[in-house]
Amino acid sequence: MTDETEKTQKGDPMNAHVTQLSAPAGTLPPLNARTLITDGATRQIDLDGQIYTLRITRAGKLILTK
Questions:
Q1: Are 64 and 50 in contact (CB under 8 A)?
Q2: In the chain, where the domains are located
Q3: CA 13 to mean position of chain CA atoms
Q4: What are phi and psi of 6, to 5 degrees?
Q5: Which homologous superfamily does the CATH classification assign to the domain defined by 33-65?
């Protein structure tokens, strides 16, 4: 068996995909990031007086910075 086959059978964590879109019982449902960031590609978030910036990259990834 090749290393690649072993990774596929064991589940390579670097290639894991999220398939669950609903929240488990007792938790809040997931938010759509695009509804949080309606104008442009960034949104500021205040947490206990600290300002964070949530950004959607051109590649469609989320980055949260302080």
A1: no
A2: 33-65
A3: 15
A4: -65, -40
A5: Complement Module, domain 1 (2.10.70.10)
